[in-house]
Amino acid sequence: MSDRDYETAYLLRWFSEGPGYWMDLFDLGTYFSSYVPVKAQDNLLLKYAVLAYSAKALGRVQGRKPVMGGSVTRQAQMEMYPDTHLVDWSHKATQYYDMAVSLLLKALKANALATPDSDSDGGDSSNGFDDRSPKRYRMTGNNAATSSTDELLAASAILCVYEFLDGSDKEWMRHLNGAKSLLVVAQERSSPMRMTASDCMATSANLGFVSKARRATFWNIARQDMLAAFINKTRTRLDTEDFSIWREFGLLLNEDGFIISNNATDIAYPEGDSMMREDLICNSLVWLMGKLVNFMAYGDNFGEEGTSTWAGVRQRTLLDYWKTIQRQFQMWHDSLPITFKPSARVDPRPATVFGEPNVLFPEVWYSIPMCASTMQYYHMSQIQLFMNKPHESTQGATNVYERLNSYQSVLAACQKHSREIVGISLGRPDDAVRIHSVQPLFTAGQCLSDLGERHVVLDLLRGVEADIGWATEYRARQLIEQWHRKDSDQALVT
Q1: Which of 85, 161, 194, 321 has the maximum number of C-beta atoms within 10 A of its C-beta?
Q2: Mean pLDDT, the chain, as a whole number?
Q3: Rounded Cα gap, residues 276 and 259, in angstroms
Q4: What pLDDT does residue 489 have?
Q5: How many other C-beta atoms lie within 10 A of the C-beta of residue 269?
Q6: How far apart are CA 429 and CA 434, in angstroms?
């Protein structure tokens, strides 16, 4: 075996055991960790995208890689790399990344998958990976095979996470724009008929309409899209009000756009036309959070595209829409199966070591990792929902005392949700859950005023980057700056 073949085997296996699994946290079919490494044997684009992501993940932790599968007396050769701590994995990642992008551009051009409309804005006209705004596309041919399209989409999703890994915001946005455009045009080609609620209920949750690859890629892009919009305080690229596209990818939505309730008495892995499995229940929260993020950014489609939509909107209209979102979250939560309940919980107890976090927070553990992460996102969504509630009125209906009590109750609720977020992280979930805990922990940290609690949040955030390599320091710095401003303001008041 040549050195290059050995390195490929090493990185492919690491992708399946680590970075690929991180992408599969909310997918019971584990497409990226199970299927992509096999497809990469015959597809250079997928191979180089995988190698780039794996190498970059190693570079972020100086070549350290955990031993998978528990304690062993002997590891396989392909699990080890000579002097891995001395290897410039970041340089290797850049080389693989350049080859992957080059192959992606060639594949798009050769397959004539899509070209920009004549009235689209400027930028790279070959693929839609433009860092200014996503373009609209028209079809130019049908000579691209469906499998080739799926592989293009999968590679695009991997390259998106490649940029998200170290917080490369501009490049991440550029790849998300391109991935979203590819996804839209691929769906227009394969699904010319738009689904209604009755279609959705009549087709076994419509999961047969799209391939395993397309489903996995869509939800990866949708989740990254929601997080990008939250981090950058913008709207999502995917239209949360276009119910048909979300139905195509498995959500059970009625004609009013509400998630159809699951039977909360059913336990793991429900089946049937009227049920969503655990992974789709998790993904349905992504859609709801996308609606919330859009409301936070612009008031959700109450104005013209690209303009501030708060101006001229009646306060009652905003409050009514907020209440609709709140009701949707409540219905989602009330219909959760028991797999979304903690499997074990240890309440705060006296610390045996100085600085031990257990004296401040509970430890919460879920037997299904995707459920642990989803509940962290749920608690995060409730904090954001409470903090972005429009006032009941500006005068007349309430007095200062009533409003102050309302603020205090909101703060107490947000702190309760914050402690649940921190408690789940203190339960030491697996790496994939820890990666997805970054934005919930950042949200929780903004609600906590105790110095000890703040240190716990910072330690958890920085531990993710130290142990796994996923960028968190930008959020830690933002928290410190916000706490400093808040403490300075309080000092001025007193």
Answers
A1: 161
A2: 81
A3: 10
A4: 61
A5: 13
A6: 7
Task: Give the Cα separation of 247 and 83 in Å (integer).
Answer: 49
Neighbours of 206 (CB within 10 A): 20
The fraction of the chain above a pLDDT of 90, given in percent, is 55
CA gap 464, 436 in Å, rounded? 10
Residue with tokens 């990469």: 40
Q: Are 473 and 459 in contact, with CB atoms under 8 Å apart?
A: no
Residues ≥6 apart with Cβ < 8 Å to 334: 261, 264
Residue 338 is inside which H or E element, if any?
Answer: none
Q: What is the pLDDT of residues 463-480, one digit of tens each?
A: 999 999 999 999 999 999
Alpha-carbon distance 139 to 192, whole Å? 12
CA distance 429 to 26: 14
Tokens standing for residue 233: 């305080």
Q: What angle do CA 105, 108, 112 make, to 5 degrees?
A: 145
* Predicted pLDDT at 88: 94
Give the separation between CA 471 and CA 415, rounded to whole angstroms. 25
Amino acid letter, residue 312: G
Phi and psi dihedrals of 458, rounded to 5? -60, -45
Which token pair is 369?
């990792």
Q: Strand, helix or coil at 169?
A: helix
The residues with which 363 forms a beta bridge, in sequence order, are 346
- The DSSP 8-state label assigned to residue 346 in this structure reads E
- Alpha carbon of 129 to those of 116, 125, 135, 159, 240: distances in Å? 11, 8, 9, 11, 22
Q: Where are the beta strands (DSSP E) in 314-369?
A: 344-346, 363-365
In angstroms, the CA 52 to CA 92 distance is 7
Taking Cα atoms as reference points, which of 161, 155, 119 lies closest to residue 18?
A: 161
10 Å CB burial of residue 462 (0-12, 13-18, 19+) is middle
Q: What is the Cα–Cα distance from 72 to 40, expressed in whole angstroms?
A: 28
154 vs 182: CA distance, rounded Å: 11
Taking CA atoms, 325 is separated from 227, 259, 375, 465, in Å, by: 18, 11, 17, 33
In a 13 Å sphere around the CA of 418, the CA atoms on its Cβ side amount to 24
At a CB cut-off of 8 Å and minimum separation 6, what does 426 contact? 357, 358, 361, 362, 363, 364, 456, 460
457 neighbors 445 (Cβ within 8 angstroms): yes
pTM here is 0.85
Residue ranges with strand state E in 61-217: 115-116, 137-138
Q: Residue 45 is encoded by which pair of tokens?
A: 């684009």
Q: Provide Rg for the chain, Cα atoms.
A: 23
Instruction: Scan for tokens 């990642």, then name that residue.
Output: 93
In the numeric block, the tokens 């738009």 are attached to 194
